[in-house]
Amino acid sequence: MATLGLSQFVSGATHQAGHTLDLIFGVGIDVIMFPSMKVPWSDHYALKARIDVPPPPCLGGEPIWARPRRLMDPDKIPSSLAGPFSPGDSLTELVEGWNTQLLAAINEIAPKRPLRPRRNRAPWFTEELRKMKRDLRRLERVWRGARDGASRTSYRVFMKTYEMAVKAAKKSYFSASIASASSRPAQLFSIIRSLMSLEGQPNLNNNSTHSCEAFASFFAEKVLSLRHDLPANLDTIKELEAPRLSSGPVLDHFDRISPADVDRLLRAGKPTTCPLDPCPSWLIRACPDEVRAPLGDIINLSLGTGTFPGELKEAVVRPLLKKTSLDPLDLSNYRPVSNLPFLGKVIERAVAEQLGRFLDETSALDPFQSGFRAGHGTETALVALTDDLRRQLDRGGSGLLILLDLSAAFDMVDHELLDHRLADVGIQGTVLQWLRSFLSGRGQRVALGGELSSRHSLVCGVPQGAILSPMLFNIFMRPLAQLVRSFGLGCHQYADDTQLYLLMDGHPDSAPDTLIRCLEAVAGWLRGSRLKLNPSKTEVLWLGRDDMGLRGQLPSLAGVQLVPAPSVKSLGVIFDTSLSMEAQIAAITKAAFFHLRQAKQLAPYLSRPDLATVIHATVTSRLDYCNSLYVGLPLRLTQKLQRVQNAAARLLTGSSLRDHIHPVLYQLHWLPVEYRIRFKVLVLTFKALHGLGPSYLRDRLSWYAPQRNLRSSNKNILKVPGHREVRLASTRARAFSAAAPTWWNALSQETRALQDLTSFRRACKTELFHQAFG
């Protein structure tokens, strides 16, 4: 009972023989026990208690001022505008005119009004159902009064009608909710959680323990404290005083934005609305003809003058509990979620397109940085990492994987150092001036309980929630990977997640000197860059036959002794010392079956397409995440994943356990797990070969080139590593560089010759589907 959080309130004997046989358990309630009483009709005592049950929460709440969405008609915006947007001489005047006129228009068509939120009311319970419920109670009273067969029949018939109407209303509401978020996974998870009445984020609006000022002060002081502990040292000063020499291409000005570009920028991204916006962003996107000209003027004036509007530099922060299991009274358990004005994000997107194009054309970013880059991702980074480790183990060697942990990395970026590193990659002139303006003078407020805190200035860091922040952070971290590889270690990065790995011949008893020097250099570079390293949270994984000789011989990192762990989690995937993936698959199956049980409870109220949406979002996505790492796993492991897919297929089709699963999967056109893994590897291979993926995957593949002209010379065949390159059969089946060419060559020549990704995916799935089901 203790594991369920239950308390037992009975003490003393409850039976004539002196035993305690009758118990009262409870959770979240107060129980006051009175002395038990003997009764003549039983050998058990009568228990007497007073149970204090808190009253249900009020159905209503404090009124809030909001704009009714039903009144926000995009067709009324043009007539509600006071006229064409006023031209201004300065960027500030243009932005103020934009905000003023849009605010006046939304006030006219949908003025704010007090709305009383209705809590604890089933949102699917319509007025029609309410009327039916009253009629049902009336028929019940008639039957209880008359007690005849006719009234009883009428009551029972209407009850079945009412139950069917309730089910239909639930089905309609659930379907509409799921359809509204079908393309937004985070929103879909939130909706499913609310439909299941699962515990979500606590409502901070009514939490009087913390005020918005307390959160604002905590978030600001946390960064200031970290920055105070990391003053500029000699390395920082040397870098800032070094001459800014860029011998390669430069980007010193922006191109003008055309009206067509404005329309494209409006359509791109999510229409997220900030509390500081004059009107909802989706409403702006619905009126492109009215906002095209003023928006283009604002963007072009901002890019041309190298100035980011000061009115758009403020963020509204909402505290979000990191995990629902954490103590909500501890401020350190919250992360700040920033929301920036919509107009500022549109300007950012225009800059990001030109800056990103320049970085790609000049290869300015580190090739092994996979964070927030097109064609790159967590899966590609982990595929390359595991391929190197498997190939090293195949040669009889060993490996050491080190996962660095940084504190508030995005918030700790030093603006002066970033300015210097931007110049190093060729950012100059107006572009560099614009980025300086974008980073300087920023501030944030915390929104909580309908109130805004005072403004807190941000002296460092790239803005959380900004479109440009990941790109700027990747430039800032660029020297770290170059430093690590200069010592002969491998390095993969995904934003601030840095993976260092050392490949060693044999199984040394002590750490090589290169590792010691590299870790000292990494710690020094991070100190010089004013980034906080968490050595106690840095994880180490030894890959080899035995780590006992190396345990205790690893060097220290920033004064903390490194100790190998039996398993580590990197980018959502659990690795063990033999890369068996057993712990990862166990975690996947546990989470997948949990969500399947949730989906089963919703199934009676969902149509089949909506149920499929829920299953794909909560279950299939887990089976497919990084499944290219499951290449060549033993059947006993892949069968665990297959059982999850089988259960999902049976739930979706209503099949029983007695039905054979192959016809069910064939009907759904689902590839079995083994073929889903192969499909993912082939898609990654296609992207790598056609320039749609990272270069570090393309470098692992090479075209087959026979010494003399053969019929197979022009058939798009990849070279399969020979037995001298990959010795063990297990490695040949599991390493990407060995398995991918084998599976690629097994495809038909027509499929291998395709140049379009969509066409290739379709043809590849068709081939694999025929192989799976004949």
Automatic annotation (TrEMBL):
Domain Reverse transcriptase: 301-562
Pfam family, one: RVT_1
InterPro entries xrefs: DNA/RNA_pol_sf, RT_dom
PROSITE patterns attached to this UniProt entry: RT_POL
Name under which the protein is recorded: Reverse transcriptase domain-containing protein
Lineage per the UniProt record: Eukaryota, Metazoa, Chordata, Craniata, Vertebrata
